[in-house]
Each structure stands twice: as structure tokens, then as C-alpha cells.
Amino acid sequence: MHGLMMDMPLSIAALIQHADRHHGDTEIVSRTVEGHLHRYGYSDAHRRARQLANALRALGVKPHDRVGTLAWNGYRHFEIYYAASGSGAVVHTINPRLFPEQITYIVNHADDAVLFFDLTFLPLVEKLAPLCRGVRAWIAMTDRAHMPGGGLDLLCYEELVDSHSDDYRWPEIDERSAAGLCYTSGTTGNPKGVLYSHRSTVLHAYGASLPDALNLSARDVVLPVVPMFHVNAWGLPYAAPLVGAKLVFPGAQLDGASLHGLFEAEKVTCSAGVPTIWLGLLNHVKSQGQRFTTLERTVIGGSACPPAMIRTFEDDYRVRVLHAWGMSEMSPLGTVNTFKAKHLALPKAQRDALQNSQGRPIFGVDMKIVDDEGKELPRDGKAFGNLLVRGPWICSSYFKDEGGDPLREGWFPTGDVATLDPDGYMQITDRSKDVIKSGGEWISSIDLENAAMAHPAVAEAAVIGVAHPKWDERPLLVVMRKPGESVSREALLQFFEGRVAKWWIPDDVVFVDQIPHTATGKILKTKLREQFRDHRLSTA
Ligand code: ADP
Predict the structure, then answer these.
(1) Average of per-residue pLDDT values in the chain
(2) Is the peptide bond before 211 cis (omega within 30 degrees of 0)?
(3) CB-ligand 1 contact for 237 (6 Å cutoff)
(4) Is residue 325 in contact with ligand 1, taking CB distance under 6 Å?
(5) Phi, psi of 193 (to 5 degrees)
(6) Nearest CA to ligand 1 atom 19
(7) 184 CB less than 6 Å from ligand 1?
(8) What angle do CA 237, 180, 112 make, to 5 degrees?
(9) Residues 6+ apart with CB under 8 A from 322
């Protein structure tokens, strides 16, 4: 016997429809590439998304076609999200920080029908256009006055929107239809496409909004620093209309001064981004003696958030850190770190320690850890193993079946090594390819990096394994010092004593001017391993 409830498909268009009807004057504020601050309400965004949906149809974009974007966080990008997915096409957000060859591969692999771009990316588009012949229209996301010259045949976004009526009814779409496409940066091999559905996107938006996730509401002002081309800004462009939160888009200016200015001017309450972004912001705020007057909490994830950063935000600036873990293949949210009632009365040091883990799974995400033979390991907070996940917003295979079936008996292997404790808190030990194997035992590069980051002279730290004749691999600490600070190799190594097991202490330290990052802001360990492949440890 079936239940007798309406079988209404979950749809992305319903999110903007809801926000229009019930939060029509709630603002979306954007710092534009053209240099001004743009503001309007959800009703305006919905109207223009409908105009754009008509325009897409006129351009010959059919259901399931891919609509590419090379764009910052801004209102036009938001409109494309809804116009494309709402009309049955697939919004394909492209990370402009990838190498041009990777972007060419991605655009051609996705078979993008049209491609929208912010003016910043014109030089990139000029390179791509001759190599991406399948793209039928290149649309500059600006008005006529700012349209670039040059040899390329471009369409103008504002003209396209203006020349179409807002008389458009969102079609009813099978909730399992594709709605969004995002390629993982793939440190090795070709990038692989993760294809989100209407159902997965809406369920993820519900999950992300929950009190023990991001706790989003119609009283929030949300500024996603995480780009809309990095796993859909972690779903915030969907969760904000779902709850009716004000949205603030920072555009291309992601430096500390620009972000802090926007936080204060727009009374931002909640933000989200990778640790590297916050390093810049905290340095700026500290050097200027500034405060956060409205910011209540910030989501930090994408790579491990150093405990020192959590403490600075919470203890010095009274901003709560929501340490979160996820991946492109998980839409991306898997876990968020919040306390349970029983933790509130704990001594501060114990609560602080609990916050360093990646948190508890959101309902909808099931996880387990297994050994190399696939045998499940205990949830005792001590055993660590390969982390597997499953759930309705987790990828079942890659676009065009790239790389074959990724699942293991119905579970998605995350490539992370982690512990799970009886309360559900998950702690990432390492990415399996980054873990350092010393004499048959494992050393967590993340733990060593976290310990180094607590040193006041360290701006950023990375730990990699380098070859050792006796132990196979031993840890090498790569450090970028804060400007004007000095610290010696010996002092740094001494700093680890008492902070990590003695045999974990790195064998050597090298100082560098820059630590390389991936296109999504993670430390590029492959590059460091290459760079220091021939490094001779003094202990060797
Ligand atoms: P890519 O950068 O390859 O596209 P993702 O952005 O999906 O991949 O990154 C997912 C990976 O990032 C996770 O598998 C994990 O290794 C790492 N990661 C994400 N959040 C955290 C966190 N809070 N702590 C530690 N590692 C994290």
C-alpha cells in the first residue's frame, strides 16, 4: 500500500519561486566586476531568471543541455543557476583557476551548448573559443556599455535578458533529472564530472540549513566566499532562498580588506570558505585592529581547519567556527562540527579539543570506516580506516561513466582516512594519498600541520613524506613564515615536543616563500612531493 500523499517532485525552480513569494524584498547584494555594488530582491532575481529561461530557449538550449559558466559569485551567476536548472538544462560551473588545457577538456567533455562568462575571463575565453567548437554562444555577463571589443562574436547578457519577456512557467521536471555539473579538480588524471540532480540539490539544501548544520534562517545574511564554481558555493545559493536569507556576493575581490568591508557594510551573519581565505582575512583584521560586529559564525572546510584558526575566530573575535567536511561528490556537505547538550558543561580545553574534529554527519549521510580488506572498523574514536559514505546527495557514478563504477558495494570511497567516535564525530587523519608511512605505521600530515600552524611565526605549513632508507618515509615540514617573523628549524622542531608523539616529529624543515595551492585552495602536495623528491633528510 502506498501512502496517500502528493507526489510532488523536488525542484530547484521551487526554491526561487518560494523566495519570490515569501521573501520577495529580501536582498541579494553583489559586488560586480564592473566595479559597483548591485542590489535587488528575490522577486527581481526570479523575474530575471524567467526572462533568461526564455532567452536560453531562444538560443536553442534544450532540456539536459549543459550551460557553462566561468563566473564569480554574483547575481547574474545566481540567475543562470535558476534559469538553466529550472528550465530543465544543466548548469555547469567551471573553475577558472584550473589550467586552460584542463578547462578546454572540461568544456568539451561536458559538451557545453552555451557559455556565460564574467569580463575577468575574456582573455581565457579568447583562448578557449577556437578549441571549444561545440559552444554555440559565448555570453559576456555585462551590459552594452561594458561590452568588450575584439574579434570574438559575443552576446551581451543584459541585452539577452532585456529582449525576453518574464512570461515563463517552470516546467515540471522529474526530480532525478540532472540539474548541475561540477568537475573535481583531479590532482591526477583528467577531471571527472559530478552530476547533481534536482532531488539531490534540494535535499542537500534542506540538510545544510538544519540547526546542527549551518543553522540558516530568514534572519541571516549569508556571504559565500567559497566560489559558486566550487561545488555550487557549498549549496548556499540553494539554501539561502529555501530559508529566505539575504545573500551577499563578493565578486572577484576576495582579499581581507574587501571581504571585511562587505561583512560590516551588509551586516553579514554567516559566511563560508576554505582555510586559506580566512588566513588572509584574519591577517588583515588583526593588522588593522578591526572587529566583526555582526558576523556570528563561519563555515570552514575544504581542507582541515587548523585548530589555531578556530581559536582565533572564537576566542579573539567571538565568531563561531563550523568546521565542516565534504567533497564535490557529496554536494558537498557530509559533516559539521557542533556540540551536543552534554558537551556544553565540559571544561573549555575539552570542548576546544572536540571542535578540532570534522564533526557529525548530517541526517542523509551515512558513513563507516573499513580496513584495506573492506572489513568495518569500530566507532571508538581510535581505529582509523578508509572512510566510505552513502546517501541521496552522494554521487553514484561520474558523468559519462568516466573512471568506471566508483562505488564499493553501494558505498562511495572518499579517499580519506578517518576515525569515528561513538557520538558520531568524525576526524580526518589524512587523505589516503597524503598519509606518511613510516616503518609500517601511519603518521597524519594534517596533525603535524595543525601543530606547526599553532606556532606564532608560521603563516602556513605543509607536511609531506620523503624517502628514508630505514623507515621508507619520514615527514618533512615545509613552512611559509609570516612576514617579518623569524624562527629556526631547531625551534620549530622543538615546538612539536609534547604536541605530537615523539616518533611523529618531522625529520627536517624547509622554509619557502609560497606554498602551492590547488584550484580549490588546498595545499598542492603533489607539487611539493615533486619539488622535494630529492631532499636528503639529515636522519637518512
Ligand atoms: P577536489 O579539490 O579534488 O575537487 P573536493 O573539493 O571535493 O575535491 O575535496 C574533497 C576533499 O577535501 C575531502 O575528501 C578531504 O580530503 C578534503 N577535505 C574537505 N574538508 C575537509 C576538512 N574539514 N578537513 C580535512 N579535509 C577536508
Answers:
(1) 96
(2) no
(3) no
(4) yes
(5) -90, 130
(6) 302
(7) yes
(8) 125
(9) 214, 297, 298, 299, 300, 336, 337, 338, 359
Active site residues: 184, 329, 437, 442
b/e per residue 504-531 (b: at least 16 CB within 10 A): bbbbbbeeeeebbbbbbbbbbbebbbee
Count of other CB atoms within 10 angstroms of residue 177: 18
- Whole-Å CA distances, 238 to 85, 269, 288, 528: 12, 17, 34, 36
Q: Quick check: CB of 123 below 6 Å from ligand 1? A: no
The answer to whether 71 and 91 are in contact (CB under 8 A) is no
527: cell is 607539487
**CA-closest residue to ligand 1 atom 13:** 327
User: Using CA atoms, how far apart are residues 292 and 53, in angstroms rounded to an integer?
Assistant: 39
Substitution site in 187, 229, 231, 303 for ligand 1 pocket (most atoms within 8 Å of beta carbon)? 303
Report the C-alpha gap between 498 and 86 in whole angstroms. 55
Give the residues of the chain that fall short of pLDDT 50: none
Q: How far is the CA of 134 from the centre of ligand 1 (A)?
A: 32
Nearest CA residue ID for atom 7, ligand 1: 327
For residues 42 and 68, the answer to whether their CB atoms sit within 8 Å is no
Q: Pick the atom of ligand 1 nearest to 428's CA.
A: 25
Nearest CA to ligand 1 atom 17: 303
- Residues in CB range of 166: below 8 A, 6 or more apart: 47, 48, 50, 51, 54
Residues in the chain: 540
What CA dihedral angle connects 161, 166, 168 and 170, to 10 degrees? 80
Cell of 540: 637518512
Which residues neighbour 90 within 8 Å (Cβ) at sequence distance 6 or greater? 64, 65, 66, 67, 84, 178, 179, 180, 181, 195
What spacing in Å lies between the alpha carbon of 426 and ligand 1's midpoint? 14
User: What was the pLDDT predicted at 537?
Assistant: 86
Q: Which residue has the cell 551586516?
A: 267
Angle subtended at Cα 111 by Cα 107 and Cα 114, rounded to the nearest 5 degrees:
80
Residue the block writes with cell 539561502: 240
CA of 149 to the centre of ligand 1 (A): 40
Distance between start and end Cα atoms, the chain = 70
How far is the C-alpha of 221 from the C-alpha of 228, rounded, in Å?
A: 17
- pLDDT at site 188: 62
Residue 354: count other Cβ atoms within 10 Å of its Cβ. 18
Packing angle of the helix pair 75-86, 42-58 (nearest 10 deg) = 60
- Ligand 1 site, residue 304, Cβ cutoff 6 A: yes
Ligand 1 mutation pick, 102, 278, 428, max ligand atoms within 8 A of CB? 428
Report the candidate in 5, 187, 109, 161 with the shortest Cα–Cα distance to residue 398.
109
| Probe target for ligand 1 pocket from 234, 325, 412, with the most ligand atoms within 8 Å of CB | 325
Say what the pLDDT of residue 187 is: 58
